[in-house]
Specification:
single chain; alpha+beta; 2 domains; six-stranded mixed β-barrel; two-stranded antiparallel sheet; 15 helices; 19% strand; elongated; transmembrane helix; membrane
């Protein structure tokens, strides 16, 4: 009997129930889209922010300690500089969080003269292909990390041992153009090096007064074969919290549980610690301005998405409340007759809730797939990439459907409970 009554209601009230299903579908679709993006936005926001520079700086441990201990100025730092072995750089991609290391590039700064005037020459990897001992292969270098630079000319390559990238200020000072050749003389060995201007770049910083060359050329100019001065690293990280800040102060102060949690989470401090574990001769410094900005932007983005999700559910619940209330009022005579024949408030409520939940679940299924489509539109429009489906969204969507349907039905159930058969059957 219950099933027959339920089927009869679904057929007779199909237009109004369709509106309820549509309301649920719209609410769930927006919530699904926001949650999918929210769970996936962390890596995508970090990936976008990685285009604006490194968040870790690797320097030789000796020179870092001396500089910090004696507060050396720039001239004294040049005397205290130590170096990192170039062959050790593959270890950067061998830590626990190796796949979170997006890019890294070594730098070796040296001095030379051009037209009898001093000039800074910087050696680096532009786009280096590396074979990692673990069997992985990666491409990394400065060009990917300095994507905001404006560069004229063909892309610089690491095997171009005669080419140079010249800063905009240097080019203007000596009226240099693409294809020109320049002779620079090493202040270290007094050797002359002839370079062809492959690129002219604008960085907006001090780099515009420098010349960038392939790392082997800078090592020859500085007479530092196989050595680099520092390494900039761009890593995907988890926003810092109290545990991360505590570990950054003193990892040994952590309990065993805290240690495991910190070490196995991609905090910038744990990545720095793991790099120092594998490369004991270096000091890894986190560029906290970048790291904290990333965390702040990510948290605010996720909070915005969560608020939009909650707002969409509240709006859906209000819309369902109006629709179900109107449905109950319209069927008041039918409900009064059921009560007059002996039906309890619980039985009538179960009938109303069952029909609403069936329609809501159908709307929720459609809403989930529509929401996933919205998530892909957001992903491709904002981040230019696919948003991975998260299985946790399916039970969350089910909970959302049940929650907004139940809350939206409460006002209608209240009206039904106080409805008296004598009033509705006599037209009062």
């Amino acid at each position: 009997m219950f099933c027959r009554m339920l089927l009869s209601v679904l057929i007779r009230q199909k237009k109004k129930l369709f509106l309820i299903a549509l309301t649920v579908a719209l609410g769930v679709s927006l919530a699904t889209a926001m949650l999918n993006v929210m769970f996936d936005v962390g890596d995508k926001v970090n990936q976008e922010l990685k285009a604006y520079g490194a968040n870790l700086n690797i320097v030789p441990r000796g020179s870092a300690v001396i500089s910090e201990m004696y507060q050396l100025d720039n001239n004294d730092k040049q005397q205290a500089i130590q170096y990192i072995k170039q062959d050790d750089l593959v270890k950067i991609k061998m830590i626990f969080w190796a796949y979170n290391i997006v890019d890294f590039a070594p730098f070796l700064t040296t001095q030379a003269t051009f037209n009898d005037k001093p000039i800074t020459v910087v050696g680096t990897w532009f786009n280096k292909h590396l074979n990692i001992p673990t069997g992985d292969q990666v491409n990394t270098g400065m060009l990917a990390m300095k994507s905001w630079w404006t560069i004229e000319g063909n892309t610089m390559t690491d095997d171009n041992l005669q080419g140079a990238m010249v800063g905009e200020s240097v080019a203007k000072q000596w009226d240099l153009k693409l294809g020109d050749t320049i002779d620079i003389i090493s202040t270290k060995t007094n050797k002359k090096f002839t370079l062809t201007i492959n690129n002219i770049f604008h960085s907006g910083g001090a780099e515009d007064t420098q010349i960038y060359v392939s790392l082997p050329i800078a090592q020859n100019i500085a007479d530092k074969s196989g050595l680099v001065e520092r390494v900039e690293v761009s890593a995907l990280t988890t926003p810092e919290n109290e545990l991360a800040r505590k570990a950054a102060q003193d990892p040994n102060s952590l309990s065993r549980t805290e240690w495991d949690t910190w070490y196995c989470t991609a905090y910038i401090s744990s990545i720095a610690y793991q790099l120092e574990e594998l490369m004991p001769d270096v000091r890894v410094k986190a560029i906290m301005q970048v790291a904290e900005s990333e965390g702040s932007i990510l948290q605010k983005t996720q909070l915005l998405m969560l608020l939009l999700t909650i707002l969409s559910l509240i709006c859906s619940a209000l819309a369902i409340s109006n629709l179900v209330t109107a449905n109950v009022i319209e069927r008041s005579t039918e409900i009064g007759l059921l009560k007059a024949l002996g039906a309890t408030n619980t039985a009538v409520a179960m009938l109303i809730l069952t029909e609403i939940f069936i329609i809501a679940l159908l709307g929720g299924v459609f809403g989930y797939f529509i929401g996933f489509g919205f998530a892909q539109i957001i992903g491709h429009t904002v981040f230019g990439s696919f948003v991975e489906p998260k299985m946790i969204i399916i039970p969350l969507a089910l909970i959302m459907v049940i929650l907004i349907t139940f809350l939206g039905s409460l006002p209608a159930l209240r009206i039904m409970m106080f409805l008296r058969p004598t009033d509705v059957l006599h037209g009062r």
